[in-house]
Amino acid sequence: MVEKRSINDVIFDVLNYTFFILFTIICVFPFYYLFINTISDNGLVSKGLVNFYPRGLHIKNYIALKDVNGLGMSFIVTLARTVIGTIVSTVASGFVGYLVTKQELWHRKIFYRFMIVTMYFSAGLIPWFTTMQMLGLTNTFWAYIIPGIVSVYNIIMVKTYIESIPAELEESASIDGASYMTIFVKIIWPLSKPILATIAIWCAVGHWNSFQDSLVLMSGAPKLKTLQERLYIYLNQSSNLAASMGTATTGLSETQRQEMLNTKSIQYTVAMVTAIPILCVYPFMQKYFVKGLMLGAVKG
Predict the structure, then answer these.
(1) Shortest CA distance to 228 belongs to which of 33, 125, 81, 124?
(2) Burial classification of residue 122, based on how many CB atoms lie within 10 Å of its CB (0-12 exposed, 13-18 middle, 19 or more buried)
(3) Cβ(196)–Cβ(151) under 8 Å?
């Protein structure tokens, strides 16, 4: 039977759908605007005439990026950092989060409270840099991985989620002789996929977008600069970027050359290239992200 709806229900649905459609457009439009400006006529882009649809379609800006010095290497470094850092951080957060749920862990409360304290205090940039320098983590790729292996916030989320899993599952496995590691790998890890996927998204976005550690720690290793730092430099020194792309304009007329070296188009293109990979990952993880975020926040 078709349920009869009141006029108030219909009005609510209309307002609800209208609000979320408008909210979605507001969220998506900046990326759409960025994209159409990268594939539109550079002369029109520089004059601000491309707003709602592309004009003078071309992909010259994307092709020309291959000639930008260091961009390819930065992409590889950032990709490697994101993949390795996300895997290591997710595994570490999952395992440590599982350990702190065990009452039999030696001085469990002390260790857990000590971790919590570190969330509220930070030494600052200079002591952090000095510490990294003393540990030999400057001008090395592992400076991107090691400091971010353990995140207290992620551990809390995993701990909260694991505590929502029925204890009987672990007890039955323990009675059958399973060790803590076996229980974690075969029971806890598969059941914790939603919260672990959530943490993986956070870690991936954090690694992909991070540039401060690259800016501070990699002054002596230009080849280890991340893509985001390159973008930061390009956005602040776009004239130098345009000059570095000069080789890509050989054989073109002066008008075409000027269009191709339009700094605004270059900025938009580099920004789009850095945003696309992480945007492609999120839709595949969204269902885990929402579920894990809600279940991990049920209790503290």
Answers:
(1) 81
(2) exposed
(3) no
DSSP secondary structure string for all residues of 129-186: HHHHHHTT-SSSGGGTTGGGS--HHHHHHHHHHHTTS-HHHHHHHHHTT--HHHHIII
Nearest-angstrom CA–CA distance, 277 and 199: 18
Is residue 39 within 8 A of residue 54, CB to CB? The reply is yes
pLDDT reported for residue 291: 54
Three-state secondary structure readout of 59-100: CHHHHHHHHCCCHHHHHHHHHHHHHHHHHHHHHHHHHHHHHC
pLDDT value for 84: 92
pLDDT averages per 10-residue partition of the chain, 300 residues: 70 87 87 82 74 78 71 84 90 88 80 81 80 86 87 86 81 80 84 84 84 83 82 65 52 49 69 74 62 48
> Closest Cα to residue 295, out of 211, 193, 204?
193
pLDDT of residue 285: 62
